[in-house]
Design a protein that fits this description.
5-stranded mixed sheet, 4 helices, binds tetrahydrodeoxyuridine
C-alpha cells in the first residue's frame, strides 16, 4: 500500500476523530479505511451512558464501508491521543479480520505523529473464521 494512501487515511482519521463522542473516557479515536475500489470510509467512537453500548471507531468505519457497498479493507489507519500508537481492541481485530486478508496493512498512530504498521495476521494470528478456506 502506497505511503500517500496511508497519509490520506491518517488525514481522514484526524478529521473524523474531532466528531468522536467520548464524554466518559475522553479518549477520542478516529479510524479510516480504504476499500477495494479506492473509496475511503471513516468512523469515530460513539460512547453511551450504558457503557457497553458504546462503539469503537473501527466498527463505525466498517459499518460505513458495508453500507456504501464496499466489501474488502485494503488498508486501515487508527488514530488517538496516547503515548504510543493506538492499536485496535481485541473485538475490533476480529471485526476487521472479517473484511481483510492476512497481509492487509493496519497502521496504528498517535496524534504526536508516531506510526506503527502491522499486518492483519500480526494483530490477530489464527483469527476465527467460518470460511472453509483461510483468508487469502
Ligand atoms: N476505542 C476505539 O474507538 N478504538 C480503539 O482502537 C481503542 C478504543 C474507544 C472505545 C472507547 O470509546 C474509548 O476508545 C476508550 O476505550
Amino acid at each position: 500500500m502506497d505511503d500517500s494512501v496511508i497519509g490520506a487515511l491518517f488525514d481522514a482519521a484526524a478529521k473524523v476523530r474531532t466528531h468522536a463522542h467520548a464524554p466518559y473516557s475522553q479518549f477520542k479515536v478516529g479510524a479510516a479505511l480504504v476499500c477495494e475500489d479506492g473509496r475511503i470510509f471513516v468512523g469515530c467512537n460513539v460512547e453511551n451512558a450504558a457503557f457497553p453500548s458504546g462503539t469503537c471507531a473501527e466498527a463505525g468505519a466498517i459499518a460505513a464501508m458495508i453500507a456504501g457497498g464496499g466489501r474488502q479493507i485494503a488498508a486501515m489507519a487508527i488514530l488517538g491521543e496516547a503515548a504510543t500508537p493506538v492499536t485496535p481492541c481485541g473485538a475490533c481485530r476480529q471485526r476487521i479480520s472479517e473484511f481483510a486478508q492476512h497481509q492487509t496493512r493496519i497502521v496504528a498512530g498517535n496524534t504526536a505523529g508516531l506510526r506503527q504498521s502491522f499486518t492483519m495476521d500480526e494483530l490477530l494470528p489464527h483469527a476465527f473464521s467460518l470460511r472453509a478456506e483461510p483468508h487469502a
